[in-house]
Amino acid sequence: MITVENLTKTFPGSTGQVRALDGVNLDVAAGTVLGVVGPSGAGKSTLARCVALLERPDSGAIRVDGTDLVSLGGPALRAARRQIGVVPQGDSLLRQRTAAGNVALPLESAGVPGPQRRTRVAELLDLVGLTDKAGSYPDQLSGGQRQRIAVARALAASPSVLLADEPTSALDPDTTGSVLTVLDRARAELGVTVLVVTHDMGVVRKICDDVAVLDGGRVVEHGKVLDLVADAGSRTAASLLPAVDQNPAAEGAYDRVADVVLVGFAAVGALLPEATSRFGVELNLLGGGLTRLGETPVARFRVGLNGERADSALEWIAEAGGAVRRTLAGPQGVAA
Amino acid sequence: MRSATPWSTVFDYTLVATGQTLYMVGVSTLIAVLLGTPLGVWLQLTAPGGLRPRPLVHKLVGFVVDLGRSMPFLVLLVLLTSLTRLLLGHTIGPTAAIVPLAVGAIPFVGRLVQNVLSEVHVSVVEAAVTTGASTLRIVRSVLLRESLPALVNAIGVTAIALLGYSAMAGVVGGGGLGDLAVREGYQRFNDRYLWATVVVLAVIATLIQFISNRVARGVDRRRHASV
Ligand SMILES: Nc1ncnc2c1ncn2[C@@H]1O[C@H](COP(=O)(O)OP(=O)(O)O)[C@@H](O)[C@H]1O
Ligand SMILES: [Mg+2]
Prior knowledge:
Chain A is an alpha/beta fold.
């Protein structure tokens, strides 16, 4: 749907050139939500601005449905911009226009006639749950409501891609939820492909199918969230899964100690009890916990096993879909 | 010591001079706003980080604008006499004074407008850019519309500044209240003219301020939550 190929961007800095993007590749499938995360200064906003066609990269391509948008100019560039709805970083609503007037802006730019414009604006206000605020001015809305209007505006001209740079960074946790719900609805009901830039892993936890970790202008990790969490060495796993505290005293009492990541209802609910009964081992949870990624329950437990067939039990768990990493004794680092 | 001019005569002269002042200030403000606003828009668009950055030409024009702004009005009056003669055929009277007043105020308005437009937040402008809006539409629907209240105030500030300068225009025979105050009041020691002109000038300035505040509030669509 949208692909970013080998994107490079340098800025002149006080101490020589700053490489904000250093060969970035991304691939976002149609109708999925990609979270772009990374520390401050990683290049997230630069990437977002390039994809929004606000910044021209030094080299590389940005393709929506196969067409490279980077080299366009004039009317072709303006038309291309309509394919990408953008929620810019920060407060971006026109303060002299009502919520409805703001949502109408892209339709005016696209030359949509008045009556059709009003219908479309009403649809979008409904989508973001702010029909009753149509006549309110931004100064009368809360931060979360303003961001939802900004999302509605970004979606007004029916773009195939929705891009949001830190849409929740100025919001409290409750309001953040309402904005994320709206992004999720946009994907579910309009089928748009969503690219959300954030430094908040909570955003990834709640709505992202895929995640790309940016650091120093490079993509250091990119894949499905549920795949990456099963990889114990990934940054995504480290920041999304429940922490496991070290407890050498308790661990010393077991033949085998391992970290197990379980993804999905079936695995979380059934895998460990079944391993216990199948292999006749004693299996205890020493740490870790349960969390949710989107709708999917995901657990990371540190387990201790006693019994002759402890290794077999761990192998079976790995084969049945759990990601197993041994921390003590036995062969290291077996993963499914 | 001759007897003071009757108040009725002072009134008649002051009335005529007030008409001339209002004419000079009104027309020169109009021209300055009509020509200075596009200049201000252009300065904002071509500034570094603007929608159409043209660093070199921007610097050059900016330099000329600031030169025009720092020029003492009296010098401008003298310098522009030949332009006035070219445009009007003569250099005396309120209409002739409009030329240097308007020309002098164009760079002033240009900078005011640019300042006002630069207050529109970058993300607001960029949001409009990403909708695929043309630059013309962004100027009209975003930059100018979002700053309309401040623009109205800037017009008021310009008119009041021109009210002050129009008093000086009397020097080249511009007429108006300043001319009356200097010729009848100061040079002929006629305090009644001084008082009358000072009062009328103060009233006009106050009125301009009052009206521009009112209009600015009227065009400001922002409504703050009442909580
Ligand atoms: N317009 C700019 N001019 C100069 N340097 C910039 C500019 N934009 C970004 N940078 C630099 O590029 C790097 C990446 O910035 P940014 O994309 O804003 O990171 P992030 O959004 O991940 O915090 C930083 O080192 C930043 O200082
Ligand atoms: Mg950023």
